[in-house]
UniProtKB/TrEMBL annotation:
This is Ras-related protein Rab-3. The lineage of its organism: Eukaryota, Metazoa, Chordata, Craniata, Vertebrata. One of its GO terms (molecular function) is GTP binding. InterPro entries: P-loop_NTPase, Rab3, Small_GTP-bd, Small_GTPase, Small_GTPase_Rab. GO terms for cellular component: acrosomal vesicle; endosome; perinuclear region of cytoplasm; plasma membrane; postsynapse; presynaptic active zone; synaptic vesicle membrane; terminal bouton. It comes from the Eukaryota. The small GTPases Rab are key regulators of intracellular membrane trafficking, from the formation of transport vesicles to their fusion with membranes. Rabs cycle between an inactive GDP-bound form and an active GTP-bound form that is able to recruit to membranes different sets of downstream effectors directly responsible for vesicle formation, movement, tethering and fusion. The keyword Phosphoprotein does not apply. It catalyses: GTP + H2O = GDP + phosphate + H(+). It is a lipid-anchor. It comes from Aquila chrysaetos chrysaetos.
Length: 263
C-alpha cells in the first residue's frame, strides 16, 4: 500500500524548476487495470507483478523534450475505488490531460469507462484532453474486450485510443507523448484564438513563444512565471489521504480529438 513513506514515489525531479511548461496529467480508471504499473513503467521503466493498491492519490514527475521545449509532467496516479472518489475528483480540476484506463481482460473495467468519462466531464476543465487506454494487451489469451470495441467507444466519447502493456512496455511512452502533443496543439490553438485584451498580445502567442503569457490554467511557464492556478504537489514521497485538503483550479473552453493505436 502506498504511504507517506512509500519509496516507490521518490520525487527527485519534482523540485527541478528548469522547465518551459508544466502539464498536470491524471491516470484514472477502475482499480487494478494497471494505472500504477503504467506510471512506473513510464517514469522509472520498472514493472512489478505484485498488486499494491494505491491509497487516494499520488504523483510522479518526468521531464521530457517536445518541440525544443522542456516539459515537466506532473503525473497523478489515482486510486480506482469508489471510496476515494471525493479526493481524486478534486484533483481533476487542474489537469490538462487524462489517461482513462481499462483492462482488456476485464469487461467490468471497460463498462466503467463511460462513468469515468462522465467524471472527467463533470469535474475537469472542458478543454482537458483524454486518451482512452486498453492496458494489459500482452494478455491476448485472456482478452475479453476487442480492439474494435475499444476504438468504437473512444470514438463515441471523442477520445484518442491506444492499447498498451505496462508489463511488456508497449505503447506506454507513445501514450504519454501523444497526450502531451495534443495538449500542446490545443494549447497553441487556444492561445492563437485568445482575446488580445486578455492576453495583452496583438496576435495570439504561440506555444514556442516563451515570453507569451499562457491562457489561464493551460500551462505553467518555468522559473520566471509562478504557476497561476494548478496546485503545488504535496510534500515529497507522500500520498494524499482523505484528511488532506484537495487542490483547486478554474476552467476555460472546450476541445475534442480521436484516433487509435492497438497492440
Ligand atoms: N499482464 C499484465 N499485468 C499488468 C499490466 N499492468 C499491470 N499489471 C498487473 O495488474 C495488477 C494491478 O496493477 P496496478 O498497476 O497496481 O493497477 P492499478 O490499481 O490500476 O494501479 C498488478 O498485479 C500488475 O502487475 C500489464 O500491462 N500486463
Ligand atoms: Mg494503483
Amino acid at each position: 500500500m502506498a504511504s507517506a513513506t512509500d519509496s516507490r514515489y521518490g520525487q527527485k525531479e519534482s523540485s527541478d524548476q528548469n522547465f518551459d511548461y508544466m502539464f498536470k496529467i491524471l491516470i484514472i480508471g477502475n482499480s487494478s487495470v494497471g494505472k500504477t504499473s503504467f506510471l512506473f513503467r513510464y517514469a522509472d521503466d520498472s514493472f512489478t507483478p505484485a498488486f499494491v493498491s494505491t491509497v487516494g492519490i499520488d504523483f510522479k514527475v518526468k521531464t521530457i523534450y517536445r518541440n525544443d521545449k522542456r516539459i515537466k509532467l506532473q503525473i497523478w496516479d489515482t486510486a480506482g475505488q469508489e471510496r476515494y472518489r471525493t479526493i481524486t475528483t478534486a484533483y481533476y480540476r487542474g489537469a490538462m490531460g487524462f489517461i482513462l484506463m481499462y483492462d482488456i481482460t476485464n469487461e467490468e473495467s471497460f463498462n466503467a469507462v463511460q462513468d469515468w468519462s462522465t467524471q472527467i466531464k463533470t469535474y475537469s476543465w472542458d478543454n482537458a484532453q483524454v486518451l482512452l487506454v486498453g492496458n494489459k494487451c500482452d494478455m491476448e489469451d485472456e482478452r475479453v474486450v476487442s480492439s474494435e470495441k475499444g476504438r468504437q467507444l473512444a470514438e463515441h466519447l471523442g477520445f484518442e485510443f491506444f492499447e498498451a502493456s505496462a508489463k511488456d512496455n508497449i505503447n506506454v511512452k507513445q501514450t504519454f507523448e501523444r497526450l502531451v502533443d495534443i495538449i500542446c496543439e490545443k494549447m497553441s490553438e487556444s492561445l492563437d484564438t485568445a482575446d488580445p485584451a486578455v492576453t495583452g498580445a496583438k496576435q495570439g502567442p504561440q506555444l514556442t513563444d516563451q515570453q507569451a503569457p499562457p491562457a489561464p490554467g493551460l500551462c505553467l511557464l518555468g522559473p520566471a512565471s509562478p504557476p497561476p492556478t494548478p496546485p503545488l504537489p504535496p510534500p515529497k514521497n507522500r500520498s494524499v489521504h482523505p484528511s488532506l485538503p484537495p487542490p483547486p483550479a478554474p476552467s476555460p473552453s472546450s476541445w475534442g480529438s480521436r484516433g487509435g493505436f492497438c497492440c
